[in-house]
Design brief:
The protein has 732 residues and is mostly helical. Helix content is 74%, strand content 1%. The chain contains 35 helices and two strands. The longest helix is centred in the middle third of the chain and has 39 residues, at 435-473. It starts with a helix and ends in an 11-residue tail after the last helix.
Length: 732
């Protein structure tokens, strides 16, 4: 039985390494959900097998290390923070887009626990790392195939491969650059070292091609730490010490060379490399620094245990700064590992998280200095590489955040170190349990427990993720509704995303004249009920209220839209997009002056906000304040923003401001010369201005730009030349 259980444990642990290849196209968020559900289910079965194995054989029982202790304490702290946080359900389960809640981190701990106590031999660890490097090499080559048009996702300027996000791809490469370096220093075979070096270069190149600047700086910082450590403490490895010293010189030369050619066409014409070459911390961190300031305000409000995992959106909305108007409207992460954990679990969680890293540093740096006999745990080269990886990972997370891939490989490193430094716990190893009790009692109970856990933790949400796609793909409105209804009835953790997608479909159906009135009513009514339910379950979420306001506007329920827009604004009072939503509602209700006031408020907050500026100018035109309106679009970028807004153009048409109307159609043509209607409209405006030569010249250019429009343009021009109305039908 031991061999069978060990086989399950080993097979599961190795299977985890292949998860980066998983892309579940039939699930919502295919790059995220397939990997996460796969990881959870594998860990649950592996953990169950390991528990029974540990009962049978004391060698597999948990060993003591401060890494194990601090990780366990961290799990306890974030669990308590989630229970006491703003929205416990979100904290524990997260959503489909992230799947990084407490439940996921518990699974990472389970993975660490099993891998760190699986009794891998040195050879097994070598096979494990080689397997991981092999999978990473395939992922890297697939990514290169993408940018060369060979695989799905081709045409992306930045490599994301099977991970679906260039930042996720970058940190995956970062881990494996250090993994393959570890294999390099352990090997004595020259040809193997050549292969490792080539693979490392492949990973470095792919990391660069992700264009992820934070991870690039992590690679630079981590490499410098590793090289410096060997240069300082590598006296027992003189050949590597010389290489390290040479590496520092080479690093300076390469950095200087890259800096020297950073402005060349080869670099600047490559979307990924130009992002790295043009790093400017002052500019690049300007948005991040605003968000970090908002996060600090949230930390002050809940300093001890924070807001709970995944609840930064509440802080983001409350503390929103208008200058973020042009950024993503719904940040759910701080994008900084320090502040993310201060928000998620307060000062206590922050300390407990970084105590794990402190324990790693203790074993890799401090303990070898105090107890040289611990050299057998890790030699200088291994310590240097692992410390470099830790620094690189930390620097990466200064401006990004963790995902399932980075969690898995951080857990792998922690387990790798724990497996070496952990010491048996006498109280555990001394316990004796008969094989009969294990096989007849513990094993059956564990099997029942793991089946229950696998089902209740994963299956309903997994099936619902597929139901969403079924609902989106259905050809009839009722078919779509049935798909979403099935997803909701699963009672998984992705309810908000399901309901938002349902509401989006309802808005589209409400605008579709081909859909029967009864089907529209059924779909819209169900979507409204689900949105209201979500608001009851998640009070204070501005996103849900603004979504419901949009929904009511789309379905013609304007008084309700006004109410929801006001509620959304109350939860995020400084957000210009909320003011614009209120203005749009007033506009649809026919309250022009009320709409103007909201648009002006948004404009006054951020004059650069083109949407607010355009609507405000349109209201001024509609109210007869033309001079004030023209002052708002006296720069080309603002004129273009005004020109592409159909409502603004229609207002100018109603006001019969022909000179301005001509400017708007000229701007539209400059942005898109392939729209025949814009050419025809501009020609007609010139005709109305009695500038017939310009009208005819415009039609000539239109025929040249759009050959299919040439017969019609010639016809209209002929009418104008003959003194007929432009719209007069042409005779053959």
């Amino acid at each position: 039985m031991k061999d069978f259980l060990q086989a399950i444990v080993y097979a599961g642990l190795f299977l985890v390494l292949f998860l980066p290849l998983v892309v579940a196209n039939d699930l919502f968020f295919p790059f995220i959900t397939g990997k996460n559900f796969g990881f959870r289910i594998i860990v649950e079965f592996v953990l169950a097998a390991w528990v029974v194995l540990a009962l049978l054989d004391a060698r597999y029982r948990p060993t003591f290390s401060w890494i194990f202790v601090t990780f366990a304490v961290f799990i306890g702290v974030i669990t308590l923070a989630a229970i006491l946080g703003e929205n416990p359900a979100t904290s524990f389960w997260s959503n489909y887009e992230r799947m990084d809640g407490v439940v996921t981190i518990m699974h990472i701990f389970g993975y660490f626990l099993v891998l760190g106590n699986a009794q891998f031999s040195k050879r097994t660890w070598s096979i494990f790392l080689h397997t991981s490097v092999g999978v990473a090499a395939w992922v890297a080559l697939y990514g290169l195939g993408q940018i060369h048009g060979m695989f799905a996702g081709s045409g992306q300027p930045r490599i994301d491969s099977t991970l679906g996000n260039s930042a996720y791809m970058a940190v995956y490469m970062l881990f494996h650059i250090f993994f393959v370096t570890l294999l390099f220093v352990r090997s004595k075979d020259v040809w193997l070292r050549v292969i490792y070096a080539l693979i490392a270069l492949l990973f470095v190149y792919v990391l660069l091609m992700t264009g992820t600047r934070g991870t690039f700086l992590g690679l630079v910082g981590g490499s410098l730490v590793a090289i410096s450590y060997v240069a300082l403490f590598g006296s027992r490895f003189p050949e590597f010490r010389k290489v390290a010293l040479g590496g520092l010189i080479l690093f300076v030369v390469c950095a200087g060379g890259f800096y020297a050619v950073r402005d060349t066409a080869v670099i600047q014409n490559n979307a990924a490399l130009s992002r790295i070459a043009n790093i400017d911390l002052t500019t690049d961190l300007s948005v991040r620094s605003i968000i970090w300031g908002m996060a600090l305000e949230g930390v002050k409000e809940r300093p001890i245990l924070g807001w709970g995992n995944g609840n930064f959106n509440f802080v983001f909305n409350q503390q929103y700064k208008p200058e973020l108007y042009g950024q993503e409207q719904w940040f759910d992460r701080v994008h900084d590992i320090f502040l993310d954990w201060l928000i998620a679990a307060g000062v206590v969680g922050f300390i407990s998280y970084f105590s794990i890293m402190a324990a790693v540093v203790y074993y890799l740096f401090w303990l070898p200095l105090r107890q040289p006999e611990r050299e057998s745990d890790f030699n200088v080269l291994e310590r240097a590489i692992l410390l470099g990886l830790l620094v690189g990972y930390l620097l990466h997370n200064v401006v990004v955040f963790d995902n399932i891939i980075s969690y898995i490989f951080y857990g792998t490193i922690l387990a790798f170190i724990h497996a070496r430094v952990g010491r048996p716990i006498k109280q555990l190893t001394s316990i004796r349990i008969t094989e009969r009790v294990v096989t007849q009692v513990a094993a059956p109970l564990t099997l029942v427990a793991v089946i229950a856990v696998v089902y209740f933790v994963n299956i309903p949400s997994y099936l619902a993720a597929g139901d969403i796609i079924d609902g989106m793909r259905a050809e009839t409105p009722i078919g779509r509704l049935q798909g979403f209804d099935t997803a909701i009835r699963r009672k998984g953790f992705g309810d908000q995303e399901i309901v938002e997608q349902l509401a989006q479909q309802a808005m589209n159906i409400a605008r579709d004249p081909a859909v029967a009135a009864g089907d529209k009513e059924t779909f819209v009514t169900r979507a409204e009920l689900e949105l209201l339910r979500m608001i009851d379950e998640k009070p204070g979420d501005a996103r849900l209220h603004i979504f419901l306001s949009n929904f009511y506007r789309a379905t013609g329920a304007l008084p309700q839209a006004k109410e929801q827009a006001a509620l959304a604004r109350s939860f995020s009072p400084e957000k210009p997009s909320m003011m614009v939503e209120q203005g749009v509602v007033e506009l649809q209700m026919g309250n022009i002056e009320g709409a103007r006031d909201f648009f002006k408020e948004a404009y006054d907050r951020v004059p650069e906000f083109e949407q607010a500026r355009t609507f405000y100018a349109a209201m001024l035109v509609q109210l007869g304040q033309v001079d004030e309106a023209q002052a708002l679009h006296n720069e080309p970028k603002y004129l273009q923003a005004f020109a592409v807004n159909d409502y603004a153009v229609s207002v100018v048409q109603q006001a019969q401001d022909l000179p301005l109307l001509a400017q708007l159609f000229e701007a539209r043509i400059a942005l898109n010369s392939q729209d025949a209607q814009n050419w025809a409209s501009l020609s007609f405006v010139y005709y109305q201005l009695n500038e017939k030569d310009k009208a005819i010249e415009t039609l000539k250019h239109a025929g040249e730009a759009i050959p299919s429009f040439k017969p019609q343009s010639v016809c209209i021009a002929g009418n104008i030349e003959a003194g007929r109305a432009p719209e007069t039908p042409c005779t053959p």
